Amino acid sequence: MENGVRALFSKKELGRTSGALFGTLIYAAGINLFIVPVGVYSGGIMGICQIIRTILIRFFHVDFGAYDFAGIIYYIINIPLFFLAFRTMGKLFFVKTMICTVAVTFFLTAIPIPAHLLVKDDILTNCLIGGIVSGVGSGLTLIMGGSGGGMDIIGLYYVMRRKRSGVGQVSLAVNVVLYAVCFALFDITTAVYSIIVAVADSIAIDRLHTQNINVEVMIISKKDMRQFQSDFMSQLGRGLTKWNITGAYTNENSEIFYIILSKYEVAQLRHLVRKYDSEAFIVVNEGVRVDGNYLKKL
User: Fold this and answer.
1) How would you class 39 by CB atoms within 10 Å of its CB: exposed for 0-12, middle for 13-18, buried for 19 or more?
2) C-alpha count within 13 angstroms, C-beta hemisphere, residue 185
3) Where does the UniProt annotation locate this protein (predicted)?
4) Could you tell me which of 146, 239, 246, 277 has the fewest CB atoms within 10 Å of its CB?
5) DSSP bridge pairs for 221
6) Domains in the chain with CATH codes
7) Please, which residues have CB within 8 angstroms of residue 128's CB and are 6 or more apart in sequence?
8) Residue 134, SS3?
9) What span, in angstroms and rounded, lies between the C-alpha atoms of 149 and 143?
């Protein structure tokens, strides 16, 4: 955890964290300005929180005024997920996820719900815009190495336990249950529009961020890299393989490190390598196919 916090305050990671936080603002704006006013529900954990909020208002007559209490519910549900996240993702990603989840909660609570539709008398357009805007926000947060919590954490844990499954399968299963509840509690129109929001959101995320773009990295170094190995495994939560080699031209002893990881973890890896050996030789090969015991990440 300490290594993750220390890495967070590097100049590069501060910029990436700021970008992730901006993504949470865009996400919350899409939800509160377009989706909530038309009375439909986004997918995943947030959709569940919105249904709980509606039940509290409709059946228990709880008044939240112009603000959306779903953000507070979202944070409460994420508290036990944080403990799960600590075991399933790199320390830096975990710290940024906690920060981004707090930011999502704040923005969802602080951004007031409009009294009237921003696109008047057009529910479908509001659903599409809201889904796209929230998806762009989520995608930006993922690109910057963060996560808004919720299904991201559950999906990662499920992938670790069932190697052949993907995060998308988990999200699909949760959304099937969610929209069945929408249909049972409300009506078919609400369920259909909610599905449209989820589809638009997913397409927007996929345009910005593709999960599990596997990258093969080989690092050749003549320095003592034992501390690099420790920092790499603790901060990124991945393993590596190394060989002792001899250079054919120089006849000097070196080490080769062989690593498979996500495309979006390469920048963090490169930063770590340069920290301990500014002259290390790094070879990156994108789009490799990996079978077997390999941890998929967002």
Assistant:
1) middle
2) 18
3) Cell membrane
4) 246
5) 255
6) 2-208 (no CATH), 214-286 (3.30.70.120)
7) 196, 200
8) helix
9) 14
Residue 23 contacts residue 99 (beta carbons within 8 Å): no
Give the global pTM.
Answer: 0.71
Q: CA 5, 6, 8, 9 torsion: positive or negative?
A: positive
Mean pLDDT score, 187-203: 88
pLDDT at 62: 82
260: left (phi over 0), alpha (psi -120 to 50) or beta: beta
pLDDT of residue 100: 92
Q: Which residues are paired to 253 by β-bridges? A: 246
Strands (E), the chain: 214-221, 241-246, 253-262, 281-286
Task: Tell how many helices (H) and how many strands (E) occur in the chain.
Answer: 11, 4
Rg of the Cα atoms in the chain: 22
Rounded Cα gap, residues 289 and 178, in angstroms: 33
Token pair for 207:
């345009």
Across 132-141, 198-207, 289-298, least confident range? 289-298
Pairing mode, if any, of strands 253-262 and 214-221?
Answer: antiparallel
242 three-class SS: strand
The whole-angstrom separation of Cα 142 and Cα 68 is: 24
Model confidence at 181: pLDDT above 80: yes
On the question of pLDDT at 95 being above 70, the answer is yes
Q: Is 287 left (phi over 0), alpha (psi -120 to 50) or beta?
A: left
- In angstroms, the CA 12 to CA 7 distance is 9
C-alpha distances out from residue 193 to 52, 113, 126, 179, Å: 18, 19, 10, 10
Residue showing tokens 């403990």:
83
User: Cα(50)–Cα(73) distance, rounded to whole angstroms?
Assistant: 8
Mean pLDDT over 135-164 rounds to 75
Mean pLDDT estimate for the chain: 83
